[in-house]
Amino acid sequence: MSTPNIRPPQVVNQRRSQRVLLSVPLRVSGKGMNGAPFVEHTKTLIVNAQGALLQLREPLQEGQTLSVRNVVTGEEVLCKVVDLNPSANGVSELGVEFARPNPHFWRVSFPPADWSTRSPEAKRFASSPSVPPPSAKDPIVKK
């Protein structure tokens, strides 16, 4: 079962950088809606050069500022909640945006904005012949 896309097409296609499915362990902290500080451990679902999509149990609202620490590298950045999708199970999906673009925070190389699976580079890598495994008929060379 898939979730219908409820965003207008012009918003969906206005990406500043490619999205990458990547699970990065995070420590997220900030002040909850009641003003009390919170710390929650989670991981990313999707990342891009401007931020990420992640899940949190802490009730938040759009516009809130969070501190996001990459548990692997120890690097920490300030983010703002820019999209919030509450769910019935108490875990919300939220989009966070870095205070300043930081494509190196995730330690991945993002494809160029115009990249697609139809690009010549993708076709070249997908169609390059792979080395077949040795068969029983291949001679064994001993040194």
- Order of the strands making up the biggest sheet: 2-3-4-7-6-5
Q: What separation lies between the terminal Cα atoms?
A: 56 Å
Structural class: mainly beta
Label the CATH architecture of the domain at 19-104: Beta Barrel
CATH class of the domain at 19-104: Mainly Beta
The proportion of residues in beta strands is 25-35%
What is the CA-atom radius of gyration, in angstroms?
21 Å
List low-confidence stretches. Answer: 1-8
| Overall mean pLDDT | 79
The topology string of helices and strands comes to HEEEEEEEH
Task: Write a compact overview of the structure shown.
The chain has helices spanning 9-12, 120-127; strands at residues 20-21, 25-31, 37-48, 51-56, 65-70, 76-85, 92-98. It is mainly beta and 143 residues long.
Task: Outline the secondary-structure elements.
Blueprint: H1 9-12, E1 20-21, E2 25-31, E3 37-48, E4 51-56, E5 65-70, E6 76-85, E7 92-98, H2 120-127
Antiparallel strand pairs: 1-3, 2-3, 2-5, 3-4, 4-7, 5-6, 6-7
Fold and architecture overview:
By secondary structure, the chain is mainly beta. The protein has a domain at 19-104: predicted glycosyltransferase like domains (Thrombin, subunit H). The protein has two helices and seven strands, in the order H-E-E-E-E-E-E-E-H. It has helices at residues 9-12, 120-127; strands at residues 20-21, 25-31, 37-48, 51-56, 65-70, 76-85, 92-98. A six-stranded antiparallel beta barrel has the order 2-3-4-7-6-5. A hairpin with a 6-residue loop joins strand 6 and strand 7 (92-98). The longest helix is centred in the C-terminal third of the chain and has 8 residues, at 120-127. The chain is globular.
